[in-house]
Design a protein that fits this description.
By secondary structure, the chain is an alpha+beta fold. The chain has 3 domains: about 60 residues, Structural Genomics Hypothetical 15.5 Kd Protein In mrcA-pckA Intergenic Region, Chain A (Roll), CATH 3.10.290.10; about 100 residues, 2-Layer Sandwich (Alpha-Beta Plaits), CATH 3.30.70; about 80 residues, Alpha-L RNA-binding motif (Alpha-Beta Plaits). The chain contains 7 helices and 17 strands. The strands form 4 sheets. Strands 7, 8, 9, 10, 13, 14, 15, 16 and 17 form a 9-stranded mixed beta sheet that branches. Strands 3-2-5-6 form a 4-stranded antiparallel beta sheet, with no helix packed on it. A two-stranded antiparallel sheet has the order 1-4. α1 packs across α2. The protein is elongated.
């Protein structure tokens, strides 16, 4: 039977759902000849399967997908949102070893926070849930508090609600509000839905501000609250269900 006539899902999607890695990482693993089915190396991430029976990664059978779990982590500054850093800098996983519960599965970050950005970072074992929350088309809100040096008016910030293009990169609607001034600095609350690379910093710098502290305080309905820096907490199962449903509702 031709591959396009077979039923099922792409192997990259199934492996992401099983928490092996993100879809993109699975595609790299396939390119590196690390994934096989019944001993035969998988050649393309477009391979369709109904189950992961017989699938191995580095010669080891893939376990059945575990229930979706979600963790909130208060990332400090000075950590890379990656598993390894070529420059040898500490990563979030160095901190997570002591902050996740002992029964925690392998988790992947949902999006990322820059080395000098702190605050709420969500982690999950479900690659498909991760992808759902990261897709710009799903418009999941991320809220930040930025401390910036320089002057800006509320009127200037409100113009961002129409979106803005900087150096050829277009950023969608941004909700930004002045909170308070402390000396030469001012605090600004910024809510975005796309999460492009360094989006908040680039937009505020375009307005003539110098961001000297950036804290993510919410991702969708999950808030940082008073979670201590460097600590993690698990999100309850019913809250995950509500989160997933709200994203699907917004997409429909």
């Amino acid at each position: 039977m031709a591959e396009d006539e077979r039923k099922g899902d792409r192997i990259a999607k199934l492996l992401a759902r099983a928490g092996v890695a993100s879809r993109r990482e699975v595609e790299r693993m396939i390119a590196d000849k690390r994934i096989a089915i019944d001993g035969k190396t998988v050649e393309t991430p477009a391979t369709l399967l109904e189950t992961l029976r017989g699938v191995t990664v580095d010669g080891k059978p893939v376990a059945k997908p575990e229930p979706t779990r979600l963790f909130a982590f208060h990332k400090p500054t000075g950590l890379i949102t990656a598993e390894h850093d070529p420059r040898g800098r500490p990563t979030i996983y160095d901190a997570l070893r002591n902050s996740l519960p002992k029964d925690a599965p392998r988790v992947m970050p949902i999006g990322r926070l820059d080395f000098n950005t702190e605050g709420l970072l969500l982690l999950t074992n479900d690659g498909e849930f991760k992808r759902m929350l990261e897709l710009p088309a799903n418009a999941v809100e991320r809220t930040y508090r930025a401390r910036a040096h320089g002057g800006v008016t509320q009127a200037q910030l409100e113009e961002l609600s129409e979106g803005i293009t900087i150096d050829g990169v277009h950023y969608g609607p941004i909700n930004a509000n002045l909170e308070r001034r402390t000396g030469a600095n001012q605090w600004i609350e910024v809510t975005i839905t796309e999460g492009k690379n360094r989006e908040v910093r680039r937009v505020l710098e375009h307005l003539g501000l110098e961001v000297n502290r950036l804290v993510r305080v919410a991702f969708g309905p999950v808030a940082l609250g008073d979670l201590p820096r460097g600590q993690a907490m698990e999100i309850r199962k019913h809250e995950i269900g509500k989160f997933r449903a709200s994203v699907k509702k917004g997409r429909d």
